[in-house]
Amino acid sequence: MIMQTLYKNFNLFDGLKPEIQKDVWFIVDSESGEIVKLGFNDAPDCEKVVDLKGKYVMPGLINSHVHLMMNPITNKLEYLSEAEVTFTALNNLKEALKAGVTYVRDCGCAFDVDIKLRRLQEEGQLGGTEIVPSGRPMCITGGHADFTEGIDGETTWGHLVDSSDEMRHAVRRQFKLGAKNIKVMATGGVMSATDQIDDTEFSVDELKTAVAEAHTKHMTVAAHAEGTQGIHNAIIAGVDSVEHGCLISDDDIDLIKEKEIYLTPTVIASYTIPTYGEGKLPSYMVDKARSFLDKFYARMKVVNKAGVKLAFGTDAGTPFNRFADTSKELELLTKVGASNAEVLLAATKNSAHLLRIDDKYGSIQEGKIADFLVLDHDPLADVKAVQQVDKGVYKKGVKVY
């Protein structure tokens, strides 16, 4: 049985430094899936050798904001059964892996299906793209994520939370089930019919309760926050990441940077709805998305100029936002002012740190898991290189695509 494989003769973006290193090799242990040795120039002898012929290697993409439960083509949001959610999630995981996404954080899944799938992964029954699960998100009655689920409408997508005490109980329930992240809906959203994106949907005290409970139990908190006041409340409460951040103020750009809170722009999610949704989605979705798009892009340019820490997420699963198109987000981030190096580091080192998996994932180093992509062209010179359809995808040192 071959226990080690040498990969040699490639150029490396390691996910740590904004540079390409030339003539690199590393050895992967087949049992652990870890890189046990990495070096340059002349490679040692090994049981199995793979010559990558001068191509470009980078870490697998870490998508820190997805919704495995959602089908971006049917766009069905309500009365989903648990079986349908699970079926959709498994298909999305396969599509994500082929696109080069080797780890995801699910930011809200009905029936806690993401938690249940993660448990199967931990038991060795389910391979492929790994999951940091959040389970059901926290939302107010009538707010973003108050969607009816189940064939008979027996549940909702989110926990309906209308006080600090209810928030505390809901977070503890998710902890009991095995969530690693808590998703809070701090503002309204594009996909909910009952609110506007600048509606504030949790008090600061409710958000602080979520953060305090989560942080004492080794969980992170991600805040869906699009409107200005809700973004401010989330930052004040001390969340780990602000998701979307569409209308963030100048003062809060300074504050989020000072507090070292991550911002996950998910530019592609706002791009796909007005681009492809006319006549196919409810008009309120298209109208809301269009109403703030220019302001959103302008705000992100200020964010990037200020040097706010970016995480990489796409909101995949939302309308026309396919898991297969994950790497398009890299290109869109450069259009709102981020450099190629910044977006690549967001999709590797930064997202791994946010998800608290950076001890083993997010970079190509000795002792890290060998999740990596093989590209024909230099992604640091042009991030569109990652959009290569037939790129090599390796999970734990094994080629899966």
TrEMBL record:
InterPro entries: Amidohydro-rel (IPR006680), Metal-dep_hydrolase_composite (IPR011059), Metal_Hydrolase (IPR032466), Metallo-dep_Hydrolase (IPR051781), OTAase-like (IPR057744)
Domain Amidohydrolase-related: 56-397
Record Pfam families: Amidohydro_1
Matches recorded under PANTHER family: ALPHA-D-RIBOSE 1-METHYLPHOSPHONATE 5-TRIPHOSPHATE DIPHOSPHATASE (PTHR43135:SF3)
Name of this protein: Amidohydrolase
Source organism: Companilactobacillus futsaii JCM 17355
Taxonomic classification: Bacteria, Bacillati, Bacillota, Bacilli, Lactobacillales
